[in-house]
Amino acid sequence: MAIEIPSIPLGDWIEGGLDWLTSEYSIVTRAISRVTQTGIDGLNDGLMWLPEWGLLAIVVGLCWWVANLRLGIGAALGLALIWNLGLWEPMIETLTLVVIATFVAVVMALPVGIAAALSERLYKTIMPILDFMQTMPAFVYLIPAIPFFGIGSVSAIFATVIFSMPPAIRFTTLGIRQVPVELIEAADAYGATRSQKLIKVQLPMSLPTVMAGINQTIMLALSMVVIAAMIGADGLGSEVWRAIQRLRPGDGFEAGIAVVILAMLLDRVTQSLRKGRKT
């Protein structure tokens, strides 16, 4: 006779917890939603206010300044192609979501990463949590976003921040913990306080590693923003999703190429910032 083992109602517990959080903290989530939506609309309107050729010229000049002329020419060609394909406005919407999500993720991640680097107990506690966050399928992050913030770009920002934050925490912690012990001992010998060591020694020495984490955060944010079209986020992801629903592979590939161009630009610019401006 087979023994039936009762299943653990984990799904019911999670749903109950989400229902409780959404009912108890609805005022907080509505306030966060209003502020986030205001930020999205403001940045998006500001970028859309610029004419296409004006924003293109600014991006090309920025790429040339932080990297080299070759990246500037590549940016000009890539953005001109996006403009020609009629995907300029969706590209701006995607860029807006990526910028805001990355900013929020980095602001939250840096203090956590610094604290984990300075506290061994916190480090051992947070690493399994980051492992869990990074192995969880990306689509799962969309589920709790909807009860909290509903359908739309705010939910996309929420899911993107949670999904893209772990690399920034990991790389910040790694960079600080890899600062040579000799430098820390030298700072101690000169009587530096803990905050002085952090600000004047550890953070400057770990900056390239921290920037690598921010680069990874931007890439993950871009991938998640595209996926978040499934919950109503605007941008290039919605163009891909619309092409899938209408069985129009050509339109889907056009939007996909635009995503690739935007990803390459963001990646090259942040890598150049990490390495230092070329002279």
From TrEMBL:
Location of this chain's protein in the cell: Cell membrane
What UniProt keywords apply to this chain's record, in alphabetical order? Cell membrane, Membrane, Transmembrane, Transmembrane helix, Transport
| Bilayer topology annotation | Multi-pass membrane protein
Question: Record's family?
Answer: Belongs to the binding-protein-dependent transport system permease family.
List where the protein spans the membrane: 53-83, 95-118, 138-163, 210-233
Main location class: membrane
Q: Where is the ABC transmembrane type-1 domain?
A: 91-270
UniProt keyword annotation of Transport present: yes
User: One cellular component GO annotation, for this chain's record?
Assistant: ATP-binding cassette (ABC) transporter complex
- Source species, domain of life: Bacteria
Q: What is this protein called?
A: Glycine betaine/proline transport system permease protein
Q: Give GO BP annotations, semicolon-separated.
A: choline transport; glycine betaine transport
Q: Which terms does the record give in the GO molecular function aspect?
A: amine transmembrane transporter activity; carnitine transmembrane transporter activity
- Annotated source species: Halomonas daqiaonensis
One of the Pfam families matching this protein, by short name: BPD_transp_1
